[in-house]
Amino acid sequence: MESITKKYSHSNNRPIRVIQFGEGNFLRAFVDYMIDIANEKSDFNGGIAIVKPIAFGSLERFKKQDNLYTVVLRGKENGKVINTARVITSVEKVLDSKNDYDEYMSLAELGTLRFVVSNTTEAGITLDLEDNLDGLPATYPGKLTKFLYKRYQTFGGADDKGLIILPVELIEDNGKKLKECVLALSKQWGLTDGFVNWINESNIFCSTLVDRIVTGYPSGEADEICRELGYTDELLDVGEPFALWVIESEKDISAELPLEKIGLPIVFTRDQRPYRERKVRVLNGAHTSSVLAGYLYGLDIVRDCMDDKIMGEFIRRVVREEIVPQVNLPRDEVEAFADSVFERFENPFIDHELLSISLNSVSKWKARVLPSFKDNYSAHGQLPVLLTFSFAALLAFYSSSELQKDGLHAKRADGTEYVIRDNPDVLKFFAENSIKSDEEFTKAVASNTSFWGEDLTKYGGFTKTVSDWLRRIKSDTAAALKAVLE
């Protein structure tokens, strides 16, 4: 079979308008994919220079394929199964920040450059005052600060040569935190006041929220997919159809990044918090409020939960009745987002294991479910039935005294052994307390303020209701689920 370069050519030679720190699967199937469509459907006309920011990994496959690769999107959308493929031609150059240092730094001198995108993992946006201006700084904020300083010097601090900086690392206020790091390093390195003013006045640090499941190279299916495509592709990148990019900025940048105008799923806003809350509460909250009960019920992957009559009803009802009404965005928007979440959970191409989602469920319940629980209680003056049940399911899932090196070992009703993985102190607490009576166990967990930030026993009837459901789940999970839905 011929390679992708035999079938497609990369001869666009577009001016580089985007520098991207990170060559991973997500950026290639999200940002680079959108830029590729913008090049086709608008006058954006921008190439991307990818910079590998760390020593790990190789760029040989990019060189071999002339920076061409295919994004395959598979899943459900508006009730239909989607399976599409697009050859991405937006990447003009791929560099190693260390081995190609001079060429990498020369990008700062490009008059066409306007955007900086990054995905250096959540740990990437961290301040290290030991980082050094000499040579290649170790951290991403260090690399960016030096890169911006070079640009400032090259263009004499020209206002129109500032950059729009779009980090997509999965931390809250990522743009603000990155800017704080840049300013702190500028001070630490003794850079000029003029540079600091240029950073503040001529560069736009955006905080962003991104959403798309990208599974990357499909090792077990690559040969079959390539046969269908008619060429080999060692950079094949697989994701789901759903995508969302929320960009928060003080200045309106929508005219410069015309993705919304061509129908791409991007939202420009001055406040991304409602959208972050929507994602955390609806998508993540749906997972955390259902997967533990689903696993104890005997299911193993998210899609099977959606397909099961009982669990499918539980998930849809907990989202529609107890989560959606409490999100601070227009109701129709939140309901439409919830419908897209259900389709994502039904994706026939992704086997999302419940046990993998169960990791660190205590902190996840606090962050993803407790806010909806509290808002429901405030609005109605009573416990939300399904969210309260999900707390009981958490206790049932964590009920074991068999603490071992790799986690807390437990068994579900069919005898399947599973390992609960969480913070060591959390596992120790459950191992010591799950041997108590259902009511005492519930009271001990609910009143642990280090878990929840407050004493949950203060909510009227919480201890009794949870302990009753706990007893019923441990006895017969299926019967308990049927009962809570009545």
Cα shape:
globular
CATH topology of the largest domain: Rossmann fold
- Summarize the biggest pleated sheet: 6 strands, parallel
Q: What is the share of helical residues?
A: 40-55%
Just name the CATH architecture of the largest domain. Answer: 3-Layer(aba) Sandwich
Tally of discrete structural domains: 2
Distance separating the two termini: 57 Å
Q: What does the radius of gyration come to? A: 25 Å
| Strand order, largest beta sheet | 5-2-1-6-7-8
Number of helices: 21
Computed structural class: alpha/beta
Low-confidence stretches: none
Average the pLDDT over all residues and give the rounded result: 96
The CATH class label of the largest domain is Alpha Beta
Quote the beta fraction.
Answer: 15-25%
Instruction: Write down how many β-strands occur, each being a DSSP E stretch of 2 or more residues.
Output: 16
